[in-house]
Structure formats: C-alpha cells, structure tokens
Amino acid sequence: MLATAVLTGTVTGVVVSRDNQQAVPPAQQINALNEPAAHRTSLPAAGSVEDVAARVLPAVVSIQVTGPLKAGEGSGSIISADGMILTNNHVVTGVGEPAEIRVNLNDDRSFPADIVATDAQTDIAVIKLRDAKDLPVMSFGDSNDLTVGEQVVAIGSPLGLSATVTTGIVSALNRPVRAGGDRGESSLIDAIQTDAAINPGNSGGPLVNMEGQLIGMNSVIASTASGEAGSIGLGFAIPVNQARRIAQQLIDTGRVTHPLLGVLLAQKSRYRGGLVESLTPGGPAEKAGIRPGELVLKVDDRVIDSNDALIAAIRSHDFGETVTLKVADPESKTSRDVEVTLTDS
Questions:
Q1: Is the dihedral of CA 328, 334, 337, 341 positive or negative?
Q2: What is the full DSSP assignment across 79-140?
Q3: 333 in the Ramachandran plot: left (φ > 0), alpha (ψ -120 to 50) or beta?
Q4: Closest by CA position to 198, among listed 225, 170, 236, 250
Q5: Using an 8 Å Cβ cutoff, are 339 and 324 in contact?
Q6: DSSP category for residue 282
Q7: What's the pTM?
Q8: How many Å apart are CA 186 and CA 238, to the nearest integer?
Q9: Bridge partners for 62 per DSSP
C-alpha cells in the first residue's frame, strides 16, 4: 500500500506539472573564473583573532642564536622602545661561547643583540638590540585576571616560520611544570596551560588575551611517549606577572632574588602535599612555627599536591610578601593556618 501511494502521488504530480508548464529561457552559464574578485568591505571586528594579530605582530620578534656548539632559535616580545626583548633563558643560552644573537623584526629589519641577564631557574632572559629606537612595544596584561576557558592567541616563530599566529583557550592555571635545559639546568615554572598550537621555536614568544595584552610567555611543550616534539595541545606559558617582575630585576640588577620559604622537602613521600623534612635555622618557616614532618596543603587558596607545586607557588610571589600556609600532621590529619613572610634567597 505504501508503494502504491508513493507511485500514485508521483504520477499525479507529473500531470499537474504538464498542465501548468510554461516556456522557460535557458539558464545562464556562470563561470566563476570569469567573474571579478570580490573585495572585503569591512574591517576586522575588534577583539577578533585577526584584530589581535594585527595589533600584536609588530612587537613580536624572531631570534636566531649561533655558537660554536650548535645553533638555536626562538621568539620574543619587545618590551621597550630602545630594544629590550623578553624571551626564554633556553633560547639564548647553551650554544657555547662566543654566541651571536640576531633578532628579526616583523617589518623585516634585523638587529644584532646582546644578553642583558638571564635566570635559569625560571627560564627568563632579557636581551637588547644594538642601536634600536622607536620600536613598537608589547602591552602588558594581568595574569591574575585569567580564567580557565578564555580565548588566547599565541604568536611566534615555530620551526623558523616567523609571525605564526595560533589560537586556543586557557586550559588550566597554576600548573607546576619542570623542564630540563642545557648543561643540566632545570627550570620550574608556575605555568598557564593552553591548547593553542605551540611548537619548537615558539619559546619566548607571547601568549596574549583578546585585547592584545601579554598575559604569558610560551616556554614549554609536552612531548609524546616517543619523544617527538610537536604540538599535541599541551603548551605551557610563564604568567606575565612573574615574567615582568623577574625581567625588571634582571634589567635593574643583573640577577634575580627568589622568595625563600626556608624548608627542605622530603624527596619521597606517600602523602599528597609538600612534606617538610627539615627547616633552615632562622628561616621564614621556622620563625612562623612550622615543624619538621608537617605537610603543606595550601598556599593561600591554592591547593598543594606535590613538592613542585609548593615550590612553584612560592616562586609566584615576591620576597617580602606574607602568605598563609595550611599545614597538617599527616598522621592525625589535624591542620592549622600559619602566616609566613618570605625572605630573599
């Protein structure tokens, strides 16, 4: 019955169509190859990736470093009109001495550069272009304002491809990430995690918000089990508040003063948190009344689940700041809050 109904409907439709048929002129043949190009009539929307890229790219540089041992490359952000560049320590070191640094701007100009100062522990460096002036400067944002899920843009020179723009979101905050460097150096950063594509060569380049403000410095990527380096959606950036503070110290004094808690942490522990093995005599922790064997569970409102998490959380502060630690007896589970004023290293 269904087949019959469909068939009947089809025949009836044909009959009606014939009754109302009129002469129709042949359709015009359109060939897109013969049509004029369509030009855009509007500007990029404010806050779009295109708008952000146009505003930020002039202040992003590509860095090539050549030494007697090897050559390397990375990215950086212009932070002063006379040529101060913020980048990673691992971008400009480890190639042997003497090293030659060449920096290429987005407008195709090229400058030699010299190292101002570096800090291996936080993987931050400042270099300066020779004889540069009136350069475009990166705008700083506030990494404390970041929220998980907000859109960000990464810019740099992955694999030597300068002025590359990728986009993603803030995947997580306060990730303690340890990365090995040359000469056995190791850095520990309190990282912003992002899924924006970051590859070798992006190191030192900016991670910006949708207002075009620097909120992080791309520094580390996760690798697959096979050890292949490439974007797998797990990139990490140094929060700009920390990078800015350290860069200013490097420019002003040539060295970095790290905040000090004054504890030695147990390397092996079955507990979740930072287990205090011993205290520095007269150090901040001892003065605050922290005892060996206690477990640090929080720094202010931040949960601590490992030694690296505790170290990264402390390094995110400046010396002289007072933080509140939640410490507990791992056996009795009793906890208390302790205020500690951090001193310099």
A1: negative
A2: -STT-EEEE-HHHHSSS-SS-EEEEE-TTS-EEEEEEEEEETTTTEEEEEETT--S---PEE
A3: left
A4: 236
A5: yes
A6: T
A7: 0.84
A8: 15
A9: 75, 104
Backbone phi, psi, residue 100, to 5°: -110, 125
The answer to whether residues 115 and 103 touch, using CB atoms and an 8 Å cutoff, is no
The region of weakest confidence among 6-10, 202-206, 267-271, 336-340 is 6-10
Cα-based angle 327, 330, 335 (whole degrees, multiple of 5): 35
8-31 burial: b if 16+ Cβ within 10 Å, else e: eeeeeeeeeeeeeeeeeeeeeeee
Instruction: Say what the pLDDT of residue 192 is.
Output: 97
CA 65 to chain centre: 21
Question: Which residues are part of the catalytic machinery?
Answer: 90, 123, 203
Rounded CA-CA distance 121/125 in Å is 11
* Type and span of the H or E element at 264: strand 263-265
Highest mean pLDDT of the ranges 37-46, 109-118, 255-264: 109-118
Report the percentage of the chain scoring pLDDT > 90: 72
β-strands 274-279, 139-140: how paired?
A: unpaired
Report yes or no: 172 and 237 within 8 Å, Cβ to Cβ: no
Tell me the per-residue pLDDT of 49-61, one tens digit each, with 9 for 90 and over.
Answer: 999 999 999 999 9
State both tokens at 209: 């918000």
CA distances from 212 to 29, 42, 229, 274 (A): 47, 20, 28, 37
Provide the pLDDT confidence category of residue 325 given band limits of 50, 70 and 90.
very high
Cα 50 to chain centroid, rounded: 19
CB 79 within 8 A of CB 97: no
**Beta carbons within 10 angstroms of residue 5's beta carbon:** 9
pLDDT band at 321 (very low <50, low <70, confident <90, very high): very high
